[in-house]
Write a structure and sequence with these properties.
This protein is an all-alpha fold. The chain has 2 helices and no strands.
């Protein structure tokens, strides 16, 4: 009977340890998920900033007249896309 009680106590102790580890891992997981979402947000902001800076470089090159043919075609294509987006916005506002 004593051996059975010792086994039950040992199992209970191990269950308590597992529960503590589980709770700790849950907290760590939550912390890591929060950090991950913050890093994703930062990454998106940086990509947006890079895109904006690339557009500014293209505009500056165009204004300075220092664009080669490939850059001119790319810039014209980008301008065309902007114009299409503006037309869509104007059409939505007109409705």
């Amino acid at each position: 009977m004593q051996a059975l009680e010792n086994d039950i106590k040992r199992v209970n102790t191990k269950l308590q340890q597992l529960l503590k580890q589980y709770l700790l891992l849950q907290k760590q997981n939550e912390s890591l998920n929060t950090a991950l979402s913050e890093l994703k947000e930062l990454n998106e902001k940086q990509f947006a900033e890079i895109s904006q800076l690339q557009t500014q470089v293209s505009i500056l090159k165009s204004a300075a007249g220092e664009m080669n043919e490939t850059d001119k075609k790319s810039f014209d294509k980008q301008l065309g896309q902007y114009i299409k987006e503006l037309d869509k916005c104007i059409a939505l506002i007109s409705e």
